[in-house]
Amino acid sequence: MKILVAIKRVVDSSISIRVKADGSGVDLDNVKMSMNPFCEIAVEQAIRLKEQGVATEVVVVSIGAAKAEDTLRAALAMGADRAILVTTEHRAEPLGVAKLLRAVALEEQPDLILLGKQAIDDDANQTGQMLAALLNWGQGTFASALTIADGIATVTREVDSGLQTIALPLPAIVTTDLRLNTPRFASLPNIMKARAKPLRKATAEEFGVDLTPRLKLLSVEAPPKRPPGIKVASAAELVTRLKAAGALTP
Ligand code: AMP
After folding, report:
1. Alpha-helix runs per DSSP H in the chain
2. What distance in angstroms lies between residue 9's CA and the mean position of ligand 1's atoms?
3. How far apart are CA 111 and CA 109, in angstroms?
4. 144 by DSSP, 3-state: which?
5. CA proximity to 86, closest of 197, 196, 206
6. Measured between alpha carbons, how far is 216 from 149 in angstroms, rounded to an integer?
7. The pairing of beta strand 172-176 with beta strand 138-149
8. In the prediction, which pLDDT does 250 show?
9. What atom in ligand 1 is closest to the CA of residue 129?
10. Helical (H) or strand (E) element with 109
11. Exposed e or buried b per residue across 21-49, where buried means at least 16 C-beta atoms within 10 angstroms of its C-beta
12. Are 63 and 91 in contact, with CB atoms under 8 Å apart?
């Protein structure tokens, strides 16, 4: 069984982002970039399925700038077998990425595609759903548990009302939620080994997909600054202050 994992290079989650002065976007100059945390969870899950003998090959794919190679190498160091880097000079949007992933899937014929539930830069939470629609495959989004047996993926989903468990015939799309697993750290020997693992480079044009943005970014603004908090001496003072601020309803 082959698993394809889509991973996105994003601003590292520990960085407090700066909005460009002209409001045209987020300043990415000299900013630490890393694998999107939900994609790390997807890579970890794929590797675990391989370690359990369920999967035979884990292929990782990323669409973006040439620098996304670092992110793919990080996934190879975690244990993925090979990587595909699709470069584009455009800002990749969910629909474009989904079309590109569809083209990769038609070529690679995976049995399962794992994606993060959302990329923490644009918070779109769209790509997996769009990809499932484009491929006409079943989808299990926000997975907090995943098992595979007899050609069926059993996915426990984190939904507002609690947990929902569904069965999907393969091939299928699964997007990962936070509680699915805790991704491993790559060891130094594995980081070295990852340098020699196969990484194919292609362009979006080679896959016949036009990634020209369809969305126009109007402006990006930082959230209003919050006033600093204060320390209260007791729970009673907290309640009094909350009442005074109208934050507690009788
Ligand atoms: P989004 O719909 O943008 O919130 O992204 C959801 C998931 O789609 C991510 O966690 C990735 O698994 C995948 N994805 C989004 N953008 C890319 C990209 N440029 N390259 C590879 N995978 C991506």
Report:
1. 37-51, 68-78, 94-108, 127-135, 188-194, 235-244
2. 9
3. 7
4. strand
5. 206
6. 43
7. parallel
8. 65
9. 2
10. none
11. eeeeeeeeeeeebbbbbbbbbbbbbbbbb
12. no
246 has a pLDDT exceeding 90: no
User: Residue 42: which of 12, 69, 70, 80 has the closest Cα?
Assistant: 80
Query: Which pLDDT score is estimated for 245?
Result: 86
Q: 39-81 pLDDT, tens per residue? A: 999 999 999 999 999 999 999 999 999 999 999 999 999 999 9
Ligand 1, CB within 6 Å, residue ranges: 6-8, 36, 38-39, 42, 62-64, 92, 94, 97, 115-116, 118-119, 122, 124-128
* Opening angle at CA 94, ends 61 and 56, nearest 5: 25
Could you tell me if 47 and 80 are in contact, meaning their C-beta atoms sit under 8 angstroms apart? yes
Tokens describing residue 104: 């990769």
Taking every pair of Cα atoms in the chain, the longest distance, rounded to a whole number of angstroms, is 66
The model scores a pTM over 0.90 = yes
Spacing, Cα 145 to ligand 1 middle (Å): 20
- Terminal C-alpha separation, the chain: 58
